[in-house]
Amino acid sequence: MSSFPSATTPLNQHSLLAIELWLTNLGAKKNEKNPCLWKWLAHECSAEIEIMQDDLKVTWISKEKESQFNFPYGLSRQDVEAALKQGP
Hints:
This protein is α+β, with helices and mostly antiparallel strands. It has one domain. The chain is 24% helix and 33% strand. It is built from two helices and five strands; from the N terminus they run H-E-E-E-E-E-H. The chain has helices at residues 16-26, 77-86, and strands spanning 29-30, 37-42, 45-51, 55-61, 66-72. Strands 1-2-3-4-5 form a five-stranded antiparallel beta sheet, covered by helices on one side. A hairpin with a 2-residue loop joins strand 2 and strand 3 (45-51). The longest helix is centred in the N-terminal third of the chain and has 11 residues, at 16-26. The protein starts with 15 loop residues before the first helix and ends with a helix. The mean pLDDT is 89.
């Protein structure tokens, strides 16, 4: 991941291409009909990650419930990735 800014750099300092590459490296798949929407399978649930204007919206979907989190782009890539890997 050497083409990315430092992992401690806020997401708002990443280009859109870098954010998309990061999501791809995490294993997320871009929605063909909506390029701002990504699907990520993790843990015992899945997540829809939406690249919004002001934040990164994550909707966790599991058998029991659905929960939504918004991560401001001021957070570092490292912090957002850790939260994603932690799960809902």
